[in-house]
Amino acid sequence: xxxxxxxxxxxxxxxxxxxxxxxxxxxxxxxxxxLETVMTAINLFDTxxxxxxxxxxxxxxxxxxxxRNSLTSPSQPIPTGLDNLVGRAAQLIRQYAGVSHGVQITxxxxxxxxxxxxxxxxxxxxxxxxxxxxxxxxxxxxxxLDLAAQLGSxxxxxxxxxxxxxxxGRGEIVEPLSHSAGLHFVVAxxxxxxxxxxxxxxxxxxxxxxxxxxxxxxxxxxxxSRLVRLxxxxxxxxxxxxxxxxxxxxxRFCSLPVLGHQMSGSGTSxxxxxxxxxxxxxxxxxxxASGVPWVHIARSCP
Length: 302
Known about the structure:
Elements: E1 2-5, E2 9-27, E3 33-53, E4 58-64, H1 85-97, E5 102-109, H2 119-134, H3 141-151, H4 155-158, E6 164-169, E7 173-176, E8 184-189, H5 196-201, H6 212-220, H7 224-229, E9 232-233, H8 236-242, H9 244-254, E10 260-263, E11 270-274, H10 277-289, E12 294-299
Parallel strand pairs: 2-9, 4-5
Antiparallel strand pairs: 1-2, 2-3, 3-5, 3-6, 6-7, 8-11, 8-12, 10-11
């Protein structure tokens, strides 16, 4: 997460993420699912600008940064105010710190909604870290992580201090990985999204396929050829059964010369791993020519 401070304002870049590995371990007594996942941040960013104001009001303005990067539908609008995770995060950190400061937040969206790319979670993490600095609260990373866990499962990853991490529990237990494979991606999303709770409702514990330890070892060794053989997402089957466009994307990627491919998170975004930036450009051009409505070339963040 990149912060650019000014005198009375702060701009934070909130990255998207991809799930390179995701296993459903079990359903917990609290209704959530125990996960093992490896997430990596990519160079696709929402931008949040925080401006101090004299009032005690928390104001949020959302800007969609171009139609190609703002896939939403009438059933998937970007909420504003306290209905948005950004507004909820701002209210939570202000209550926790016991302050009455106001702020004007401008959120510029580039990460598609309902895509399994963590856009809302990343924006919430950016809000917690940004307001901690803007308001000079001096909250520790542990305090921010505790606040993040109250808001959502993936938010802690974006506060975790690294661009790639193993996440366990509901996703809130974050173990940064010091080694990253420096991967090139083509990421695509169909016109429709999926509800994360709905996908989890249809999933089952997943004890098949590769194990987490083998996947992490392939990353530590920067062994891309082994890594792509170990890609795994236990939510992909349920997502394909709920949205045929995810299956159609899988079929498209099967016909493309990518090193490996799978869905990210609970969908509907789908990514292919490429050998280089030029390779990714070639694959992206073919996807766009085939009519896929949103295609993005990305690289894992350093």
